[in-house]
Write a structure and sequence with these properties.
alpha+beta; five-stranded antiparallel β-sheet; 347 residues; Enolase-like, domain 1; elongated; three-stranded antiparallel β-sheet; Beta-Lactamase
Length: 347
C-alpha cells in the first residue's frame, strides 16, 4: 500500500473538486454530474470548467462513467485520495463518545465477552459489518488445561490462559476415559504448561512426547498427545463478526455475487484474522481500500481497522467492513475511539 508521500499530488482546485465528488457520492450513492457539483458546492469555477476538470480526473483514473449519459463515480483511487486528505484522526461525536464510554462502564463482564460484544457495538454505531479479534493467542500466558468427559472416545478440552480468552474444542481419544482419568491428565498437563506461552508449551509437550516414544500406549503419552492436539487446535485467534447481513442493505451490493463474496470472507475466520493483522497499525487506525486488501474477496470493500492493546503489547484488532462508499471520517473516528477505550478497560 503506497504511503501518502508516494502518491501523486493534485493541484488545489482539482483536489477540492475531487473531494466534493467523493463526498457527494458517499452521501447519495448516485453517479455525480458536473451540474450537481456546480449547484451544491462553492468552488469558484464555472460549470464548463467543472466538466473539463472531471474529464481530466476520469482520464487519470480517479473517476469513471458507467455509461455516456451518466455522471461520474469515484474509483478506489479517488477514495484513497479522499481518505489521505482526512485529518490524522477525526474526532468522534460527543453523543457517540458517551455511548461508548457507558457501554464499557460495566467492568464485571468477562474480558473475552467484552471483545465479542464490541463487534456488535461497532456494527450498531456504524451501520456496517464489524469484526473483533483476539486476544492474540501467541501472546497469552497459559494457566491450565481442563478435560471434561463428553461421550465415548470424545472429551471437551479447555485451554485456560491467565486473564481471558479460554479456547475450547472437542478432541477424539483412542480409548474411553473416566472423568477421574481426565482429571489426572488435566493436572499432569497443567503442571507441564503453566506459565508458558503457547509456543513454549508446544516445545515442552514435543520434548516430553519424544521422551515417552517407547511408551506409546501409556496414560502419560496419551495425555501429552491430547495436549499437543489442543495446542494446535487453539492456534487461531478468536474472530467475532456482527452485522454480516448489513451488506445486503447497500445499493452497491444489489448484485448477489458481490454480497456473497463478503459473506464467504467473513465465514473464513482464519483468513479474516490474517487479513486484519496485515492492515492493523498499532499507533493509528488504518484503512485498506479495494484491492489494497490482501484477501481478494474483499476487493470491492473498504476495511477500517485499529488495534487494542495492553501497554505496548497488541492484543487484537477491531475493524469495520463496508462499501467503498463509506463515511470514512465517522467510521475511522468510531473504530479508533472504541479501540482506545477497550485498551483502557482491558488494562
Amino acid at each position: 500500500m503506497a504511503t501518502p508521500e508516494q502518491r501523486p499530488e493534485l493541484e488545489p482546485r482539482r483536489r477540492a473538486l475531487l473531494r466534493a465528488i467523493v463526498q457527494e457520492f458517499i452521501d447519495t450513492a448516485q453517479a455525480v454530474s458536473s451540474r450537481r457539483i456546480a449547484q451544491n458546492y462553492v468552488l469558484g469555477v464555472r460549470p464548463a470548467t467543472v466538466r473539463n476538470i472531471m474529464a481530466g480526473l476520469e482520464q487519470e483514473g480517479y473517476l469513471y462513467q458507467p455509461h455516456t449519459s451518466a455522471g461520474r463515480i469515484p474509483t478506489a483511487k479517488a477514495f484513497r485520495h479522499f481518505v489521505d486528505g482526512l485529518t490524522p484522526c477525526p474526532e468522534v461525536g460527543l453523543r457517540e463518545r458517551a455511548q461508548i464510554e457507558f457501554y464499557y462502564s460495566d467492568h464485571a463482564r468477562d474480558p473475552a465477552q467484552l471483545v465479542r460484544d464490541t463487534s456488535g457495538l461497532l456494527s450498531t454505531l456504524t451501520g456496517h459489518t464489524a469484526v473483533a479479534t483476539g486476544p492474540c493467542f501467541d501472546l497469552m500466558t497459559l494457566e491450565r488445561i481442563e478435560l471434561v468427559y463428553l461421550r465415548t472416545c470424545q472429551v471437551t478440552a479447555l485451554l485456560v490462559p491467565a486473564g481471558a480468552g479460554v479456547r475450547d474444542c472437542v478432541l477424539e481419544t483412542t480409548r474411553d476415559y473416566t472423568q477421574d482419568d481426565l482429571n489426572r491428565v488435566s493436572n499432569f498437563m497443567t503442571s507441564l504448561i503453566k506459565g508458558c506461552t503457547p509456543e513454549q508449551a508446544k516445545i515442552r509437550v514435543s520434548r516430553a512426547l519424544q521422551e515417552q516414544r517407547t511408551r506409546a500406549h501409556s496414560l502419560v503419552h496419551e495425555a501429552l498427545q491430547l495436549g499437543a492436539d489442543l495446542l494446535v487446535r487453539s492456534e487461531f485467534d478468536a474472530v467475532y463478526v456482527q452485522g454480516s447481513a448489513r451488506v445486503l442493505d447497500r445499493p452497491e451490493f444489489a448484485e448477489p455475487k458481490k454480497a456473497q463474496e463478503l459473506l464467504d470472507a467473513l465465514e473464513d475466520r482464519a483468513a479474516l484474522a490474517k487479513a486484519l493483522g496485515q492492515i492493523v497499525d498499532q499507533s493509528n487506525p488504518n484503512v485498506a481500500i479495494g484491492h489494497e486488501n490482501t484477501d481478494a474477496r474483499l476487493s470491492e470493500f473498504s476495511v477500517v481497522a485499529a488495534a487494542y492493546a495492553s501497554g505496548p503489547v497488541r492484543l487484537g484488532s477491531l475493524a469495520v467492513i463496508g462499501p467503498l462508499r463509506m463515511d470514512y471520517g465517522r467510521v475511522i473516528a468510531l473504530v479508533d475511539y472504541t479501540a482506545r477505550v477497550l485498551s483502557r478497560v482491558w488494562n
